[in-house]
Amino acid sequence: MKNDFDEQGYILLRGLIDSEELKKLRQTLDTDIFERYGYGIPDSSGRMPRMVLWRSPGDDVTGLVSRSEKVVKTVERLLGGEVYHFSTKLMMKEPLIGGRQEWHQDYGYWYQNGLLYPDALSVFIAIDKCERANGCLQVVPGSHKCGRIEHTRVAGQTGADLTRVEEILKKMPLSYVEMEAGDALFFHSNVLHQSDPNNSPNRRCALITAYNRASNDPVPHLIKPFYGYIPLQKVPNSAIRECTNISDFSGKDFVEPKTDKTVEAKKD
Description:
Blueprint: H1 2-8, E1 10-13, H2 19-29, H3 33-37, E2 39-40, E3 50-54, H4 61-67, H5 69-79, E4 83-93, E5 101-104, H6 106-110, E6 120-126, E7 137-139, E8 151-154, E9 157-160, H7 162-171, E10 175-177, E11 184-188, E12 193-195, E13 204-213, H8 238-242, E14 266-267
Antiparallel strand pairs: 1-11, 2-3, 2-14, 3-4, 4-13, 5-12, 6-11, 6-13, 7-10, 7-12, 8-9
């Protein structure tokens, strides 16, 4: 798995989150979290995926998933050292209207948050089935070896230089990452990825947690709106099933759209 991550820039773990854990995550979506904290980020066509973004994991079920040993220990092995929670977001593409995510690297905008090295990755956990019809992720295997690509504003999003992306795609064809609910994609911060709009009648929702190497502490005056290194308190995997908190989001420190330097968002 480590070799695959180093060569391709990602690994896909099937069924990392089981049915009982998924049930708890979906109950979180049944709260008013999107109405209270959500915002849209317009794509080049004006359609919008919706997201909720927070800095601190918290003690609700989403936080315990992000702090669980099966997730965090995998991240530590892939990145080769201690990691901490950088951010988490719920990303939703609503049926028939959910927008696309433009081509980008996560480090393309984390660079703006003060990270000097791309020693970071994201864990994309499918809460719903993700397939081509509802806008599953598309990744470019091996693209993390291209280094950081210049990013500019594409509509409301931060996107990679498309001229360079087109040249990369001539050498490194994209791959559609179709996932069942509960599958998890661990991908390097320099992997190029995008997703198409959701033209299907099925919702596409995911929990995406970003982790940074402890040794990659951001430059202090560039870190807003995210924190620098804070030790991550891991929890046993059993904590997810035992969690009864699906709606108390105390301490998560939600990001307000106006403070997020990487997007031009529209508040719900």
